[in-house]
Write a structure and sequence with these properties.
single chain; 356 residues; mainly alpha; Citrate Synthase, domain 1; Cytochrome p450-Terp, domain 2; 2 domains; 3-stranded antiparallel beta sheet; 16 helices; 3% strand; binds acetyl coenzyme *A
Length: 356
Amino acid sequence: MMTDGLDGVVAASTILSDVDGAAGRLVIRGRSLDELAGRTSVEEATALLFDGFFDDRPSGGEWRAHLGQARHAVFAEVAALDERLIRHGPLEAVRALVARLADGEDLATALRLVAAPAVFLPSYLRLRAGHAPVAPDASLGHAADVMRMLRGQPASSVEAAALETYLVTVCDHGLNASTFAARVVASTQAGLTSAVLAGLGALKGPLHGGAPGPVLTMLNDIGEAGDARAWLEAALARGERLMGFGHRIYRVRDPRADALKRALATLGVEAGRLAQAEQVEAAALAVLKDHKPGRRLETNVEFYTAVLLDALGFPADSLTCVFAMGRSVGWLAHAREQATSGRLIRPQSRYVGPAS
Ligand code: ACO
């Protein structure tokens, strides 16, 4: 059987997460997204996803200290951020710094890889803006420390909680493209750093984790929401896809979109901004219905990701790296699952070139 884009192909068994595309439901290790988002810390989500995949098991409260120490450990790599990497952009810079970390299969390696994007992105953004990077504070919760490293001063508890909700919401999502890439590399026993680098590479593209930056550009270009329909129709007429809409698995609204909308509501984001986003969303759904009548194209996670992370102060070109901060936990759990209980992933291709 050959399917373009592996559509409908089951390529792994996992105990980690399940995406029900018809019901619009996400379950992570037996817990629904609603149980987790806004109620679970990054440390608790990490403990949940990593459970059973490593020999050493910190107890509940120890995860915060372990992750804090990991942030502290990777901060040394920030010294390698030179002008050339800063010019290349946030994803390229974070990827280059992650590549400096040693490969391994143990919990210490995994926690350094969770810590890496969380430390490298704020450091990169501060250096690019002409400020010195802020060293991690190992005593803080992960999300609060990211906001502090970004701002140079503590953010409000509401802002830290909104980032935490985002990071937990995106921590794992079945066999998405970047997780599959990470599992392919892990299946060769290459090690966790190599698997995360594969995940970062796949996440970067605009069809996957690269979408929220273009969503923000779209919202800013549209401006007055009354002009949305004409703007969106013109984009489709040019053959473009509307970013933040459509999904390989979901045929209904992505449940993560609502989890992020709830986080936005707690932030008290400027009322006009949220209303504009909602109007653009409604216009896009109407336009897409006419554009592809036979295909249900609904809002995906990236639409409100863009609004939320923008409100928290992350620049448009850095949003994919914030996604990587959350998803690295899922990549690592999947990589361990694949390396410990899976086989080498090696499909076949069908040759359609000229005969010899
Ligand atoms: N805007 C316009 N048309 C679309 C969109 C969209 N957002 N999404 C799908 N379509 C069209 C396709 O062009 C295709 O048309 P065709 O049959 O004439 O070629 C038709 O709808 C069917 O779509 P598929 O290509 O089968 O969708 P696929 O499952 O391959 O792609 C994807 C899913 C990549 C997410 C797609 O919907 C898309 O490009 N969306 C915009 C980018 C985006 O928001 N990505 C983030 C996804 S969420 C995540 O990865 C975390």
